[in-house]
Amino acid sequence: MNLTRRETLTLAAAATAAGAIGLPSIALAKDGDVIDPLKLMNPKGIPDKVDGNPAAKVTFIEYASPTCPHCALFSNTVLEPFKDKYVKTGKVKFILRPFARNTMDAAIFMLAEAAAKSVDAQSTPANSSSSAASSSAPASSADASSSAAASAPASSSAVPAGADPTNPSGYSQAAIAQYENVISTYFRTQNTWGVSDKPLDAVKAVALQLGFSEDSFNQALQNQDFFNKIESMRDQAINDFGLEGTPTFYLNGKQITGEQTMDQLDAAITPLL
User: Fold this and answer.
1) Residue 210 above 70 pLDDT?
2) Which of 19, 47, 38 is nearest to 241 (CA)?
3) Where are the domains of the chain?
4) What are phi and psi of 28, to 5 degrees?
5) pLDDT band at 165, cuts 50/70/90?
6) Per-residue confidence band for 184, with pLDDT thresholds at 50, 70 and 90
7) CATH code of domain 5-18+25-272
8) Which tens digit of pLDDT belongs to each residue from 47-82?
9) What pLDDT is stored for residue 166 in this prediction?
10) How many angstroms separate the CA atoms of 236 and 104, rounded?
């Protein structure tokens, strides 16, 4: 995808007004509706990046948009405790699905995809000087593990030897951690790049902190095939699942809309375990 000058000028407005962007009213689903699992677990465009135990009894899917302030609040305050309690213990498998409401969302998902792919290729999108830059990005346990995986040399046993054929995406857990880390970093810094009058430059600044080079940043945004897949996933969510906005969650197929607290998730998940 090539971002034109006209597109970049509209992105700042899209980011600051993220919560007000409307979606087509096509058989919208309601909280508590259960989506046909055969449809829900067969996403169009992008195979699921399953984080955690693939045999877990509980499946928790999130449709998120990087420009969505409610998605950012959930990511910044609830997601990591949720993953510590349920995903890392093997009780729940977590799937983060892209929902691009504007070109800025698409660009960030394209960067995340490139970062994930680089891990399983046993190379980083960064140049050799990127490790210092990435250390200045907001830190979390996921950051530390994924940054180490991305920067390890090809011969290092710390990096899985290529993709994981048992995961629907084909990506290893290290690659999925890197994918989620890129998106969570943009959520943590949303109040900076999201209000910039030069949105593409602001997004690039975060990408450079994450370890991208100028070349790898530009290459990621030229992945037209992945851009088309993002659009396919968005269209399926609207047309087949009745998704109205983000964040929207599916807990074993049951729809939950809006940001959730840890207490709310505990109450919903505990009976399923």
Assistant:
1) yes
2) 38
3) 5-18+25-272
4) -65, 135
5) confident
6) very high
7) 3.40.30.10
8) 999 999 999 999 999 999 999 999 999 999 999 999
9) 87
10) 20
Six-digit token string for 223:
């992945």
- Distance separating alpha carbons of residues 60 and 217, to the nearest angstrom: 30
What are the contacts of 17-23 at 24+ separation with CB within 8 A?
18/65, 18/67, 18/68, 18/69, 18/101, 18/102, 18/194, 19/68, 19/69, 19/70, 21/101, 21/102, 23/101, 23/238, 23/243, 23/244, 23/245
